[in-house]
């Protein structure tokens, strides 16, 4: 058996394959009617609650914070929570609690267990963020076969039963709880080709929630003349109320204003949510996704009219505001597809996991996945006053790909050479430093050429090799990520996860 996991910002979904090879969702172990796990956790001493447990318990633990949207902190090396003993919990560690919960659900649901496991990642994730997801799986004792990008997984599922899309250009529009991704794909038989990717980091359902939360705060201040309290229980309640109101506004068949009485401590007040105001602010967010779509198409010399199908996935895509926005954009020869936005990614991940299996199931079709580099990848010599980027790999180059750059080094002038590794879309705006390659010390005394080779693998992670270009010998180097006030230590974080009771089981 196989396991595909969509580790989402708002919700996590897992899927496997039935005996006939069709993907099925894995239910919650305690409630078979529930097939979605909220991506949240709550920690109390040596007990932790993940998913639905945390969602149902926060009222009884008013001094505990619901840890949510931790996925947005992948790759930052910044803690997302401090427990009662002042231990720092990183995004990878909190994510491992959710993964352990889902893993337990799968082990109880699948009688024969699973041999292949795949986790999805946003298409625009850089190397550090992708490795954070892999680290979360490692902390959860979940042995990964591969990672796959969320839009690609959704395309695999969509293409598994839709044979008419061969040779068409398909835009997978993935608007989730915390991120927006877009991927341009073509399909030919069992071969799936990713031709371009783009996205917007930190744009998703949370920003729609923030619109509602801001309205609640304003109504509270009007009613009582004070700012809304900032205690943990109020924050947890506000988060849940805002999410429910957002869904109600998004799903309205007929636009209408909504009034709700809200309790904060002993204070009760009426909050009014005006549909036109919400829709105008929400549309501004949707326009940002359109700008990313157009940017991606321009990079290929294409126009929106060149797209055959737009497939909407991700929780935020379920909003009628999003659907209606794009319905007005597609032409008569194009098709807008609203296709299982909450489950297609996990189901596609299960199909991808099955493609690694050596089983005899004739229903499983091997998948030939061809992807491209999400970002430009370059190097910056640390002591270069011009801060010039040496571009090694262009974005949208087919993967895997490798490239190299040589630098003249004089060991008599320097014992070490520091070279920054970076990824970016636009070198003028969004250069993201992944870390510093610190090569040395050098045994040679004369000048030589130092060669830095960078590989962008099929899963989007980056490998580095450093050697002496004159004699071909490897050179010792250290890859240093950004400095942080709280150092991530795997053994410490693993011990914290292993020694905590999760959802009333170890």
From TrEMBL:
Keywords recorded for this protein, A-Z: ATP-binding, Nucleotide-binding
InterPro entries attached to this UniProt entry: ATPase_NBD (IPR043129), Heat_shock_70_CS (IPR018181), HSP70_peptide-bd_sf (IPR029047), Hsp_70_fam (IPR013126)
Coiled coil: none
Pfam family, one: HSP70
GO molecular function: ATP binding; ATP-dependent protein folding chaperone
Family stated for the protein in its record: Belongs to the heat shock protein 70 family.
UniProt name for this protein: Molecular chaperone DnaK
């Amino acid at each position: 058996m196989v396991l595909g996991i969509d580790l989402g910002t708002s919700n996590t979904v897992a899927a496997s394959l039935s005996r006939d090879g069709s993907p099925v969702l894995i239910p919650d172990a305690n409630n078979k009617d529930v097939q979605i796990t909220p991506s949240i956790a709550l920690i109390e001493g040596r007990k932790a609650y993940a998913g639905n447990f945390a969602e149902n318990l926060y009222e009884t633990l008013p001094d505990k914070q619901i840890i949510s949207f931790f996925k947005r902190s992948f790759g930052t090396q910044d803690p997302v929570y401090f427990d009662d003993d002042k231990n720092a919990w990183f995004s990878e560690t909190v994510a491992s609690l959710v993964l352990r919960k889902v893993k337990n659900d799968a082990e109880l649901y699948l009688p024969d267990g699973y041999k292949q496991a795949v986790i999805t990642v946003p298409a625009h994730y850089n190397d550090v963020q992708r490795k954070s997801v892999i680290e979360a799986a490692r902390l959860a004792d979940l042995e990964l076969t591969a990672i796959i990008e969320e839009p690609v997984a959704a395309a695999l599922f969509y293409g598994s039963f839709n044979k008419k899309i061969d040779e068409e250009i398909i835009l997978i529009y993935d608007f989730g709880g915390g991120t927006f991704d877009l991927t341009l794909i073509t399909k030919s038989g069992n071969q799936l080709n990713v031709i371009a990717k783009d996205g917007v980091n930190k744009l998703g359902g949370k920003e729609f929630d923030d619109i509602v939360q801001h309205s609640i705060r304003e109504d509270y201040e009007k009613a009582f003349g004070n700012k809304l309290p900032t205690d943990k229980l109020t924050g947890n309640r506000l988060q849940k109320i805002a999410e429910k109101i957002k869904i109600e506004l998004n799903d309205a068949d007929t636009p209408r204003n909504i009034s709700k009485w809200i309790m904060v401590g002993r204070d009760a007040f009426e909050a009014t949510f005006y549909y036109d105001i919400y829709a105008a602010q929400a549309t501004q967010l949707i326009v940002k996704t359109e700008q990313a779509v157009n940017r991606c198409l321009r990079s290929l010399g294409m126009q929106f009219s060149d797209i055959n199908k737009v497939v909407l996935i991700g929780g935020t895509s379920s909003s009628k505001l999003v659907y209606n926005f794009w319905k007005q954009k597609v032409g008569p020869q194009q098709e807008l597809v609203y296709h299982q936005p909450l489950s297609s990614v996990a189901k596609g991940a299960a199909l991808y996991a099955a493609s690694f299996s050596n089983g005899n199931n004739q229903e499983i079709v091997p998948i030939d996945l061809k992807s491209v580099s999400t970002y430009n990848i370059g190097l910056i010599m640390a002591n270069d006053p011009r801060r010039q980027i040496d571009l090694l790999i262009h974005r949208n180059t087919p993967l895997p790909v490798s490239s190299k750059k040589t630098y003249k080094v004089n060991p008599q002038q320097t014992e070490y050479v520091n070279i920054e590794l970076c990824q970016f879309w636009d070198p003028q705006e969004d250069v993201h430093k992944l870390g510093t390659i610190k090569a040395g010390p050098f045994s040679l005394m004369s000048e030589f050429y130092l060669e830095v080779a960078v590989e962008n693998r099929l899963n989007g992670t980056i490998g580095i090799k450093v050697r002496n270009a004159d004699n071909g010998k490897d050179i010792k180097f250290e890859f240093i990520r950004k400095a942080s006030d709280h150092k991530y230590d795997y053994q410490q974080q693993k011990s914290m996860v292993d020694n905590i009771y999760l959802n009333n089981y170890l």
